[in-house]
Write a structure and sequence with these properties.
The chain is of the alpha/beta class. It is 32% helix and 25% strand.
């Protein structure tokens, strides 16, 4: 199975081609662009396909990160994955950013539960715990720094992510970088019927309509 993996959940914009049969990441293209995911994503998809010597029609599945993360970035990635899947007649699956980060850490230190803590800014954190086999222990959530510390400061296992030290004092891996091979592998293993791409928003958008300034239409 050839998987096209897409990540636009943060400031980075990446696409990769993964061969599930060999377990090999054939190519990866992208950059930490900050903004402009909609304008650059398909460029990176084309670069990844060219570098892998594969055509878009050869892709068997699209895997995309669904968040939590950048509100706009997630919308771009999920929309692109759905559009490509529709055009190709192939399935698209979504994988949460928290699970990708947790799985990358779990594979390095097998046999231990993992807690992912991502700094959501505004003194809040995205969190989710996974057992030693990689199964989620509860839903992803967003908590204030005080709530997160009260609930997880004594977590028995590995703590990773950009908010790890702030919440638990852990000195583990503090990066939120999405490993594209891990994303693609999880996407290849996912059930398309139950993992359809859907944005995982744990916080509402910053831009909200200002009803008080609405102009009444004639």
């Amino acid at each position: 199975m050839l998987v096209l993996a897409i990540d636009t959940s943060g400031s980075g914009c990446f696409a990769a081609v993964y061969d599930d049969r060999s377990g090999e990441l054939l190519s990866c293209a992208g950059a930490d662009i900050g903004r402009g995911h909609a304008e650059r994503l398909m460029e990176f998809v084309d670069e990844a396909l060219t570098a892998s010597a594969r055509e878009l029609v050869e892709i068997d599945r699209i895997a995309v990160t669904t968040g939590p993360g950048s509100f706009t970035g997630i919308r771009v990635g999920v929309a692109a994955a759905r559009g490509l899947a529709l055009a190709l007649g192939k399935p698209a699956v979504g994988v949460s950013t928290l699970r990708v980060v947790a799985e990358g850490t779990r594979l390095k230190q097998a046999g231990q539960p993992v807690l992912v803590v991502i700094d959501a800014k505004r003194d809040e954190f995205y969190l989710q715990a996974f057992d030693a086999s990689g199964s989620a222990q509860g839903e992803a959530e967003i908590l204030s720094a005080e709530e997160a510390h009260a609930r997880f400061s004594g977590f028995a296992g590995i703590v990773c992510g950009s908010g790890a030290r702030a919440v638990t004092g852990a000195d583990g891996d503090r990066t939120d970088t999405i490993d594209m091979a891990t994303l693609a592998r999880l996407g290849a293993a996912a059930d398309p019927a139950s993992a359809r791409p859907k944005p995982l928003y744990l916080r509402g958008p910053d831009a909200k309509p200002q009803a008080g300034f609405a102009v009444t239409r004639a």
